[in-house]
Write a structure and sequence with these properties.
By secondary structure, this protein is α+β, with helices and mostly antiparallel strands. The chain contains one helix and four strands. It has one domain. The protein has a four-stranded antiparallel sheet with strand order 3-1-2-4.
Length: 64
Amino acid sequence: MFDVYRNDKRFLLVLSTGSAVPVLYSAHKWRKSRKRVLKVSDEIKSAVQAQGYYVRRLRVTRSG
């Protein structure tokens, strides 16, 4: 399972369950998603296994 966090600058951080936020990103205020994530894409899964985390910027939605 995975823990999913997001911050006010629209970044997404995915960690394996129980892992601490990496030092590089600990200065930002992260909000943990309340929903449990059981399945993620192969790209995210391989990044979490290799680096211990996966981070990316969320797309900005356009209103109009």
